[in-house]
Amino acid sequence: MHAGLDTQNYVGERSFQSIPMTHMTGERVCALMPLARGQTLVPRPIYNKKTFARDLSMTRCNNVVATASFFLSAVKKGVIGPTALANVMRPASGGEPVTKSAVYKIDKWLKENGCKVRFSLGGGASEEGGVTLVTYFMNEQTKTNETGLPLEPHVHVRLVDDNGNIVTENEVLANLQATSPAAADRYLNNPEATAARWFVDEEGTKWGVTGDIAVRHEDGSYNILGRASDSYVNEKGERVYLFMIEYSLDENDPILEWEISAFKNDKGGHDVVGQIILERGCTTPKSELIEFFCEKYKLNAIKFYTEFELGEVTSKRDYILLAHDYEGYYMPCDKENLYFVNYSEDGTMTRQIVSKREVDNT
Known about the structure:
Elements lengths: L13 E3 L7 H13 L3 E3 L9 H8 L3 E3 L2 H10 L12 E5 L5 H13 L7 E5 L7 E6 L18 E5 L13 E6 L11 H7 E3 L5 E11 L5 E6 L3 E3 L5 E3 H6 L7 E10 L5 E9 L7 H11 L4 E4 L14 H5 L3 E6 L4 E6 L7 E6 H5 L2
Parallel strand pairs: 1-2, 1-3, 3-4, 4-5, 15-16
Antiparallel strand pairs: 5-6, 7-8, 8-10, 9-10, 10-11, 12-13, 14-15, 17-18, 18-19
């Protein structure tokens, strides 16, 4: 995850162990690699994003790898102090895509707390053996993550379309497959899942089907954009990737985090909804935000959250829960009212007219 940085790892450097060693990233990237380089692990308190920023500051650690939700939780709480993170030399994230707007907010928060190094994030796939497929860093001028670096040696990936044809063009969204000498080859005692995830091609190479959508850049780097499942097929038979809407988030809008989901509607199509955590201190009436966000991002409905629930194993945002959170949405109605909407798995919907004043007072 630190490719491209000055990785002179000094004996005695302190690494904040925010990810448990019960799965690959915590074991290899956050524990074994630092220990092999003579560093010291500071393993407290694991998976507590509510105290993450304060703990990182108090332990005076030099390096940290945490999921993006940890950093964004810290952003929401605000600045600790102008020198709170002065010791941090490698603030990194991995395991889940982050919008450009969120990366900008995290990087700004780090700088305000005294960190002199820019935020970085990496992406990988366990199917190819657990090394980093792509690492990208904030570009100083554009504030985007378009400075990806090429693959690590002996890792091979390819992009294929939905029909399995290899995609050779650059900057084209396609399905990511990966392999390496250290590649995994099965799910334990689960032949059906194994058959869906791995296959051997005509040349005898075993490929892992990562389930990710990625693009390849001209310099040979890959950018993992999101999951193939984070999409729906519209009335024209076209696949719409919801993460592309997420990446379009304007950094000037008062949204700290958001997820875009698509629910079946009663017209036989899909409603695209925004699941939103607002920035701290946002005072704009919710009714105004609902209408503004729906118009700007072509959304059908909005639901506001205080925070997103995290998965127990990975501590990433619980995407599955959000993808099935059908109740409690608002959509534009008229000058004085909004619709309160509940969805369902089969497309059955209920709508109730509520006044904007009532929504703003909740």
